[in-house]
Please model this.
Amino acid sequence: MIVHYRKAYLLFLLIFIFTSCLTDAGEDYKTIITTAKDIATLTANVDLSRYPKVKDTTDFPIIAWLGVPPKYTNIERFREAKDAGININYSFYPNVDSVQKALDIAKQVGMKILIRCPELESNTLSTVKKFKDHPANAGYFIKDESTLYDLPYLKKIIQTIASVDDQHLCYVNLYPNSILASDLGARNYSEYIRRSVEELSLKVISFDFYPILNGNNIRYGWYKNLEIIRDESRDMGKPFWAFALTTSHGDYPIPTLEHLRLQVYSNLAYGAKGIQYYTYWTYNSLNFQYYSGPIEKDGSRTLVYDHLKKMNSEINALKYIFLSGEVKNVSHYGSNIPDGGKRLAALPDYVKSLDIKCNTALISEIENDSNRFLMIQNNDLHSPIEVTIKVDSLTKIVLKNGSIIPFSLINQSFKIESGDMVLFMR
Model:
């Protein structure tokens, strides 16, 4: 994220260098060889018109962090972001007039704006009154990567906003667990999350963690961070939003579709109710050299834009499941279990057997009022995995376009490529 102070930046750099030397699931990867076909290939000849689809629902929050910049605020650029699946734009606007312009354009294309401008801090009441009833208002950006030391000041701003607008969220993004608890002002990371949410009355828990390093290694601590966030989200009854990295910088590579899928589907497997992309527009920074975001600094599209659009089309086809579902259990399968994760101990009653040829895979059990779901994700960026599963006759599979077909139409081993997932429904 954007590091605002030199001391914080130096601390972040030291921790980043240290944790970059570690990986979350070990380094002893074997090459997985499989002749199995993927689900898309196995269902290519199925007449999908005969089968139902996942029902549509309200928008799943998909946020462009450092989205369309103020100087490019026009309907063409907002439509471009909307076409990529973005429905909330966050940028730092220089004044209230530029916020008004962005809100009006966002309304035209069916997007919203997370509001941030100097007047939100310097003249809070009048700024909130000006925008509180605008239909494109997604909430108010308060702080990125706060600590417990910031709570008194942030609480004052949030209470002022809530005195005239208690309907929209006040957005505060929290640090990952790679930061020392003492630097966060807490005894441990869980306390930091809990106190931040409770004392600031946050409607949404947002945190950032960018797990993929050069060499396709998973940065140490990511799944443990997700475990803690899921626990706190469940205990406090607050949804959480997570991040996927879309711009290369430092030791982070140019994102591929596999990278986006690994981040997004792991976040969703743990119960995320919103996905944030950092960054949409390639950022000019004094601390890092950013490059190859979805939109480059000069405004041109990159290949990452196409990956982003594809990823968001997959989210939106399945969004009802992720919005309505509650994650009941998350576990890991294979020889490499990440720190903080737990090994798969039992199968749902509709699954008779499961065998996965893999180094590592992620298993998530999700339920809503009507159905139970089982997500199997390949969270190994080095190889595909091969899944052999036996289920009862009522079990279905949900395809990436939202079509729901009987698994009996496949009924054979299949492969899952790196980062990707397969979703069963019962």
Summary: Confidence is low (pLDDT under 50) at residues 2-8.
